């Protein structure tokens, strides 16, 4: 039963992470462009040249967004964007250097593995060289975006323009090798089978055994609103036939993540997709972290999902679940 799985996950969470606290971070998602030709079928965010609402942020606009984070007491910027067809590596290096010159203490969490692979191809460089250049320019860590489900059958259907499972893992392990920590995500509840979710867990667990470079695991559910996936009848039928059951499927999968991933200390809740009530429940289903108090979010919201919360909301969720709230940095260290 759901409660039994939750109880086991909660017990493991109390053993593996600090038993008294729940952490979160204040940051801002800066999505530097929505121009992207990867054309993932689960994405409602990307645009093509000529669509009319495509954009590319200039350095000044990015720095203005960073300034607001600094003034709000935030300590991290999450930089992610579409696979821009023309921008060379110098654009991204200049972006990183500009942020660090103005705010040396801001942690820059940026560029998922498929972006790294895209930069490598566009610039005719190995992915390791791209990572080294970005790190030298100021990159501190890499988000686990684009993992979706780490099973190639699924990826070939929903994201054929991005890294396959092995490539995603390889780029993350290269990052770990040069001292860039990363996270891992899992986007589920679409066309994947339970066996493919297990494949995702096993790949991630094996990679963590190898490098120890992943700081957190972050599962969330596919948000169907406005996505091409729901406009393709055959794929829509697959999703409806599998019929995953909303929040109960989410909580069960979160709990199984905690049980399966014995080498991960931090498991992050997705209140952004689940809302405040289920977000609070996650703290008894294996999660020890509420992720980010996002000052800006532009991808999930394009799918019609919006659960904006304040710092007070997060504190109330945590205290109400019986824990102490602690503000952290990207290394999961408490900050004053």
Give a written overview of the molecule:
The strands form 2 sheets. Strands 1, 2, 3, 7 and 8 form a 5-stranded parallel beta sheet that branches. The protein is an alpha/beta fold and 336 residues long. The chain starts with a helix and ends in a 9-residue tail after the last strand. It has 13 helices and 8 strands. The radius of gyration is 19 Å and the shape is globular. The model is unreliable at 297-301 (pLDDT under 50).
Question: What distinguishing features does this structure have?
Answer:
336 residues; alpha/beta; five-stranded parallel sheet; three-stranded parallel sheet; 44% helix; 14% strand; globular
Assembly state: single chain
Q: What are the segments in which pLDDT stays under 50 over at least 5 consecutive residues?
A: 297-301
How many β-strand runs? 8
Helix content: 40-55%
Shape: globular
What value does the average pLDDT take?
90
Terminal CA distance: 40 Å
What amount of the residues lies in strands?
A: 5-15%
Count of separate DSSP helical elements:
13
Q: Main sheet, how many strands, which sense, barrel?
A: 5 strands, parallel
**N-to-C series of helices and strands:** HEHEHEHHHHEHEHHEHHEHE
Radius of gyration from the alpha-carbon trace, in angstroms: 19 Å
Helix/strand-derived category reads alpha/beta
